[in-house]
Amino acid sequence: MQTVTVEGYLAADPSILAAQTSGKKRASFRLLETARFRRADGQMGERTTGFNCVCFNEAAAENYIAPYARTGTRVVVSGHVENDTWTGRDGLVHYDLRLVVEELRLKRRRDESPGESEVPRTFSLEDVDDEIPF
């Protein structure tokens, strides 16, 4: 399995959802990463890529992501990529890639002083003994 690390900003507040059968909670959110580059003609350009992310760890979703992560929060996410398929209301099968979060770190804003908030900055799934459903 390959590990992917992405740094970017949350596009919206994360949604905390409960599984229909088990009731276990998970967090899903969209992460935007912008790369800046110089074109051949010397002009500056930028390209923004969106990543659909899901964290199946219930403790991370409830105790770390839900209370501290908001729209515009800068985060570093590590995890692995997997295919996501579903059948839409139109009956067509849809395909997407998603990043399954294994580690998440909130980054401090430049205008935020170190003692200003009591946000734990990193949450690793290794810190929790819960079973992960994958």
Question: How does this structure look, described?
Answer:
This protein is mostly beta strands. It has a single domain, classed as OB fold (Dihydrolipoamide Acetyltransferase, E2P), CATH 2.40.50.140. Helices cover 8% and strands 51% of the residues. It contains 1 helix and 7 strands. A 5-stranded mixed beta barrel has the order 1-3-4-6-5. A hairpin with a 5-residue loop joins strand 5 and strand 6 (93-106). The longest helix is centred in the middle third of the chain and has 11 residues, at 58-68. The radius of gyration is 17 Å and the shape is globular.
Number of strands: 7
Overall pLDDT level? 84
Broad structural category:
mainly beta
Distance separating the two termini: 13 Å
**In the CATH hierarchy, what is the superfamily?**
Nucleic acid-binding proteins
Give the biggest beta sheet: 5 strands, mixed, barrel
Q: State the helicity in percent bands.
A: under 10%
CATH class: Mainly Beta
Provide the fold topology.
Elements: E1 4-10, E2 15-18, E3 25-38, E4 44-55, H1 58-68, E5 74-87, E6 93-106, E7 122-124
Parallel strand pairs: 4-6
Antiparallel strand pairs: 1-3, 1-5, 2-3, 3-4, 5-6, 6-7
Structure summarized in a few sentences:
The protein contains 1 helix and 7 strands, in the order ββββαβββ. It has 134 residues and is mainly β.
Question: Which structural traits does this protein have?
Answer:
134 residues, mainly beta, OB fold (Dihydrolipoamide Acetyltransferase, E2P), five-stranded mixed barrel, 8% helix, 51% strand, globular, disordered C terminus
